[in-house]
Amino acid sequence: MAAGISTAHSVVEPSPLVRRIAGAVVILYALITIVPLIWIGLTSLKSPPDSISYPPKILFEPTLEGYCNLFTTRSRQTAEYLQGLPAASGRCEEIARQRSMVVVGASNFVPRFWNSVIIAFGSTFCAVTLGTLAAYGFSRFKVPLKDDLLFFILSTRMMPPIAVAIPIFLMYRELGLSDTKLGMILLYTSVNVSLAVWLLKGFIDEIPREYEEAAMIDGYSRLQAFVKVVLPQATTGIAATAIFCLIFAWNEYAFAVLLTSGTAQTAPPFIPIIIGEGGQDWPAVAAATTLFLIPIVAFTILLRKHLLRGITFGAVRK
Amino acid sequence: MAEIRVEHLRKAFESFVAVEDSTFTVADGEFFVMLGPSGCGKTTTLRMIAGLELPTSGTILLGGEDVTFKRARERDIAFVFQLFALYPHMNVRANIAFPLKCEGLPGAEIGARVEEAARILRISHLLDRSVSGLSSGDRQRVALGRSIVRKPLAFLMDEPLGALDTELREAMIHELRALHDRLGATTVYVTHDQLEAMAMADKIAVMNRGIIEQFGAPRDIYDRPASLFVADFIGQPSMNLIDFRASLAPGASELALGGARVAMPELRMGCPERDLVLGVRPEGVRLDDASPLRGEVFGAEYLGTTQIVTVTTAHGAVRARLPASLKVNAGEPVGLSFRPEKLSIFDRASGRALPSALHDIPYAPRPSSIKHAGGLHG
Ligand SMILES: Nc1ncnc2c1ncn2[C@@H]1O[C@H](COP(=O)(O)OP(=O)(O)O)[C@@H](O)[C@H]1O
Ligand SMILES: [Mg+2]
Q1: Do A240 and A156 lie in a common domain?
Q2: B146 at interface of A, judged by CB pairs closer than 8 A
Q3: Last residue of some domain: A86, A107, A128?
Q4: Which residue of A has its CA nearest to B155?
Q5: What membrane topology is given (chain A) (predicted)?
Q6: CA-to-CA distance for B368 and A78, rounded, in angstroms?
Q7: CA B11 / ligand 1 centre spacing (Å)
Q8: Whether the Cβ atoms of residue B270 and residue B250 lie closer than 8 Å to each other
Q9: Where in chain B do CATH 2.40.50.140 domains reside?
Q10: Across the interface, do B83 and A232 touch by the CB < 8 Å criterion?
Q11: Residue B132's closest chain A neighbor by CA?
Q12: Lowest mean pLDDT among A223-227, B175-179, B277-281
């Protein structure tokens, strides 16, 4: 924490037995969490018959069929028609031909995935930006009715957001925000900003005011002091908050189903649609799920340095 | 460099008054110390001078200019915080350069001034280190570096040595005073430690509960405390305070303590019969077998060259600072006498000292206060 303040926590060293038990619990938990993910990854590489075979196949011949089916739309053709076609160009066309189909175009997966990226990252950016400014204000200034306002902000998270789905649906239809990326960004921002304010206020409260005061005495304005002195020290909190916001916005399903159907549809409501198209195409669903996991995993790994400290909510300081 | 004038400064936090009607002047180039127990309003006063807190009423003049309601950054002062407030995300060089970056100076000049400040504080070898790995003494120097690099009108320091261990603290006391003598900059220094105050100050203001009890040179505060609070707060051990009741005429130079007559500095003002307090420092107490003021040795605390002997008397315990070589035994009956020229008389009700011959002598200026010409600010 602050240079000059030593906050060495004295921690009792756990005994070897306790360590071993703790280690076993962590490994067990990791297995329980990771096995389904590995299963999804494996399924995405299976052929449709392999994916539903019983008993489940651990060893199988990997194929890109699931990914091809995810990215393309295909149509079934008669054998005569297929015979008349020139040789297949590309892996996916080849796989389709084996199933008596031809690729007729790209699927909606890429645009839907892209919508998810824009909406989730956009709303995370807005929520964290607004949250940081609001948290700084609440932390440093005398705000009239501060406690009531903070409670109000928190209270917006007390009911499940979907409880207000109908009013929001009607409101969005009136305002022309239905099925728009802007609408979804605004919605997810407003849900996340309360979490962001509360989390960040905790982090900013822990940054001694003296830092800004020193900067202001040295000739900087409050805004400059905020940017140059407070923000760099709040990065841990900002990173942790951003991940929480991103995970919510990325995974959100209910509002996405209700409010998006076409141009702004995100990946979560799109993935179940795949199941319906031409039989239960589990490898394609698994492929979509696998790809869907990647951005959040990448973002988390990118910020992991901050997270370890951030997620403990200031309990362990540098 | 500039004179700081504080007039009728008052600060209330809701109903709690942290600083009450504070008035003092810090002359240009003076080392001024605000001394008082924790919570007496020292930091609040300093923060008002810095512009980090707005006074409830009163005026602050910096170099003759009214800055009471000016922003901190418009005041051109430097502040050394109690816990240094070094920016942990910057290295030592960037920390010291930070105030200069704001002025938009060319990089070469910033570099040169940072080097110069580092040289003065002997931290040149640390410039490229991260601040988080520094010892507290070095952090202290970096914090000082950040304040001297800018050549401000005045330095404000809030218990800057509070976080250091005793040994380092003593070394830093001398360094700080030497630095002040070299730069000659007006300094307001806040501490609760009387040794720091005594060792460094040109002038001291002793504060208690938001009120300045006494303003004066260190010698003045020690030798003729203006109030019971100052008498009790200053000195280790503190002044012996002996309650008695009497009426004193103007010009009186003797008082009666039980059956004993005690000589004192001639009073300039008398008072009708009331509760009074006789104040005498332990070094003003002597063992004197002929004295009618009797007591019994309770114990002795050995301090190397001297010892503090506690004697129980009919008027309470009296501590005497005596040579360590003197042999005293617990339970031994002794007589006590006081050196008359160092006695103070206080009014118990108001707590103020009665004016006497003690107050005739003008302020003793600080002997070591030699201002060097030139230096960083020359
Ligand atoms: N922002 C504030 N709000 C309310 N009370 C305060 C505030 N700042 C200081 N005080 C109170 O004012 C008194 C003086 O504080 P301070 O100036 O920090 O004392 P010192 O520095 O002499 O220890 C203390 O009792 C403190 O609790
Ligand atoms: Mg203080």
Answers
A1: yes
A2: yes
A3: A107
A4: A217
A5: Multi-pass membrane protein
A6: 109
A7: 10
A8: yes
A9: 228-358
A10: no
A11: A3
A12: B175-179
Taking the Cβ of residue A227 and every Cβ of chain B, the question of whether any pair is shorter than 8 Å is answered with no
Q: Cis check for the bond before B106: say yes or no (omega within 30 of 0).
A: no
Task: Please give the distance of CA A236 from its chain centroid, rounded to a whole number.
Answer: 18
CATH number for A290: 1.10.3720.10
pLDDT tens across A186-236, in order? 999 999 999 999 999 999 999 999 999 999 999 999 999 999 999 999 988
- Is residue A228 a part of any domain in this protein? yes
Q: What is the mean pLDDT of residues B227-233?
A: 95
Percent of chain A past pLDDT 90, that is, above it, reads 55
Q: Which long-range contacts (CB under 8 A, 24 or more apart) does B356-364 make?
A: B356/B264, B356/B265, B356/B266, B356/B267, B356/B268, B357/B253, B357/B265, B357/B266, B357/B267, B357/B268, B358/B223, B358/B224, B358/B265, B359/B224, B359/B268, B360/B268, B363/B216, B363/B217, B363/B219, B363/B220, B364/B217, B364/B219, B364/B220
Position A99 in a domain: yes
Give tens-digit pLDDT for A29-69. 999 999 999 999 999 999 888 888 888 888 888 999 899 98
CB atoms within 10 A of CB A216: 22
Amino acid identity at A318: K
The whole domain housing A298 covers 110-312
The CATH homologous superfamily to which domain B4-223 belongs is P-loop containing nucleotide triphosphate hydrolases (3.40.50.300)
Q: Please give the CATH superfamily to which domain B228-358 belongs.
A: Nucleic acid-binding proteins (2.40.50.140)
The confidence band for A5, taking pLDDT boundaries of 50, 70 and 90, is very low
* Cα–Cα dist A193/A248, whole Å: 11
My answer on whether A170 and A101 are in the same domain is no
Q: Examine the domain organization and report whether A149 and A249 are in the same domain.
A: yes
Mutational pocket test of ligand 1: of B14, B15, B35, B43, the residue with most ligand atoms within 8 Å of the beta carbon: B43
